[in-house]
Amino acid sequence: VLSDDRTFADGLAAEIEAGGGRASVVPGTCLREQLADLDTQAAAGFVMARSPTPDEASAASADLAALASTLAVRSPVPQLVVLTRGAQSTGGGEAPAPQQAASWGVTRSLALEAPELHTVVVDLDPARPAGEAAAVAAELTNSSGETQIALRGSKRLVARLERCRTGLPAEPAEPAAWRLKPTSPGSYDAFAREPLVRRTPGR
Fold it and tell me: 24: left (phi > 0), else alpha (psi -120 to 50), else beta?
């Protein structure tokens, strides 16, 4: 678990071990130092959790890409799980955190550029509910195949496209034909579009 939040990382590692797995924490904010520690560790997967400020968003995205490049050349290739917090809006009027959302863009690119990593991104609840570490640990062993997940309270949400069910007002029908007409007679400086009424051809 690579994280700049030692308390959260320790709690997640404890939940992983409570479930029968093995976990270790690589704390810190310097990726170079963390990668030096990773060189001596063999693992089936790595979890990266960062809490960048808006000014650190670009550097955090670069670190994530660098980590992916490092893991992609390992044999066997481990899985990469990226944790964000409040990166996605799931309804209820919540505003997403742009500095966290940048990591989602990187993980979507990794799905195409490094599919061997089987990258999964999990967005955590900004409210930090109780039992969060246990929910994340359970997600690490989930075999559903979902790669974009949001945890909100006790809910597990996944990315889906669905038809809008709200009663949106119907757009006005476009006229079958229209013409441009000067807004002022005799002036060609401005025009307005108006429906064209076709005349019945004369005989």
Answer: beta
Residue 159: CB atoms within 10 Å = 13
Any residues with CB less than 8 A from the CB of 88 and at least 6 apart, and which? 96, 101, 104, 123, 150
Q: List all residues 6 or more positions away from 185 whose beta carbon is below 8 Å from its beta carbon.
A: none
Q: How far apart are CA 61 and CA 5, in angstroms?
A: 17
Pairing of strands 45-49, 79-85: parallel
Task: Please give the C-alpha separations between residue 18 and each of 1, 7, 11, 95, 138, in angstroms, as whole numbers.
Answer: 15, 17, 10, 34, 11
The total of other beta-carbon atoms located within 10 Å of residue 5's CB is 16
**Residue 146, token pair as written in the block:** 């979902």
Instruction: Say how far residue 183 (Cα) sits from the centre of its chain.
Output: 49
Name the residue among 45, 41, 34 with its Cα closest to residue 78: 45
Q: What is the pLDDT along the chain (203 residues), one digit of tens a residue?
A: 998 899 999 999 999 999 999 998 887 777 777 777 766 667 889 999 988 888 998 988 999 999 999 899 888 899 999 999 999 988 777 788 989 999 999 999 999 999 999 999 999 999 999 999 999 999 999 999 999 999 999 999 998 887 766 666 666 666 668 888 888 887 778 888 888 877 777 76
Q: pTM of the predicted model, to two decimals?
A: 0.75
Dig out the tokens for 101 from the structure: 């959302």
- At 194, which helix (H) or strand (E)? strand 191-195
